[in-house]
Amino acid sequence: MIASFLQNTAQPTQVRWATKKSGGSSRNGRDSAGRRLGVKKFGGQEVIPGNIIVRQRGTKFHPGDNVGMGKDHTLYALEPGYVRFYNDAQHPKRRYVGIVHEREAALPIPMDQPKPRRFDLVDLTAL
C-alpha cells in the first residue's frame, strides 16, 4: 500500500510559464469625473440675475443682451427676464444667448429700433 502511494506522487507534472509578461495595470484605470458642462437654462425659461445659463469650455455660445461671461466662459444672467438663443447677422457663425424682459420679445433687436430698457423707477412722492 505504501508503494502504490509513492508511485502516484512520483509522477512528473507539467508546468507552463507565461511566454509574454502581461503589462502592468498600475498606470492605467483612472478617469476624472465629468465637468457638468452644457446649457443650464433653456430658451424661454425665466431667470434672475446671477443664474447660470451655460457652462462651457471656450466660447461655444457668446454673451448677448443682459448676459455676462465669467473667466471660465460661464454665461450668466445680468437682468431678470427670459432666455433667448439667437444668431446675429453680423456674425453668422456665432451663437448668442440673451435675456429679454417680456416673454414675447425676440432677439436680435433690429438696428433701427431702440434697445428696450428696464427702469427701476423710484416713487418720489414717498420720500
Lay out the secondary structure.
Layout: H1 2-9, E1 38-39, E2 46-47, E3 52-55, E4 62-63, E5 67-69, E6 75-77, E7 81-87, E8 95-100
Parallel strand pairs: 4-8
Antiparallel strand pairs: 1-3, 2-7, 3-6, 5-6, 7-8
Molecular structure report:
The chain is mostly beta strands and 127 residues long. The chain has a domain at 38-100: RNA polymerase II/Efflux pump adaptor protein, barrel-sandwich hybrid domain (OB fold (Dihydrolipoamide Acetyltransferase, E2P), Beta Barrel), CATH 2.40.50.100. The protein is 6% helix and 23% strand. It has 1 helix and 8 strands. It has one helix at 2-9; strands at 38-39, 46-47, 52-55, 62-63, 67-69, 75-77, 81-87, 95-100. The chain has a 4-stranded antiparallel β-sheet, with no helix packed on it. Strands 2-7-8-4 form a 4-stranded mixed β-sheet, with no helix packed on it. Strand 7 and strand 8 form a beta hairpin. The radius of gyration is 33 Å and the shape is rod-shaped. The N and C termini lie far apart (117 Å). The relative contact order is 0.14. One of its GO terms (cellular component) is mitochondrial large ribosomal subunit. This is Large ribosomal subunit protein bL27m.
How would you describe this structure in keywords?
rod-shaped; Ribosomal_bL27_CS; 1 helix; mitochondrion; about 130 residues; structural constituent of ribosome; 8 strands; mainly beta; 4-stranded antiparallel beta sheet; 4-stranded mixed beta sheet; ribonucleoprotein
